[in-house]
Design a protein that fits this description.
Blueprint (H helix, E strand, L loop, with lengths): L1 E8 L4 H14 L2 E7 L4 E6 L5 H9 L4 E9 L5 H7 L3
Antiparallel strand pairs: 1-3, 1-4, 2-3
Length: 88
Amino acid sequence: MWKYTLKVDGMMCGMCESHVNDAVRKAFPVKKVTSSHSKGETVVLTETEIDADALKNAINATGYQALSVSHEPYEEKKGLRGWFSKGK
């Protein structure tokens, strides 16, 4: 799994976050996408790598500006349930 973190300029409220999230979901097969206007950030989790420039373009098409994008391998946290099942 991959984690993409984008710095996004122009988001001012929860509806702005929703617009960005919807644009990303429509453009890519994502597992999860969350945005924060207070952090100026959007985080995208995907099963496969996606084109970072296309991701920026999808956000820019909404009227917000994706300033930068970084990505890294991502491993889901299992929590207590995963911790207890390790002994099996």
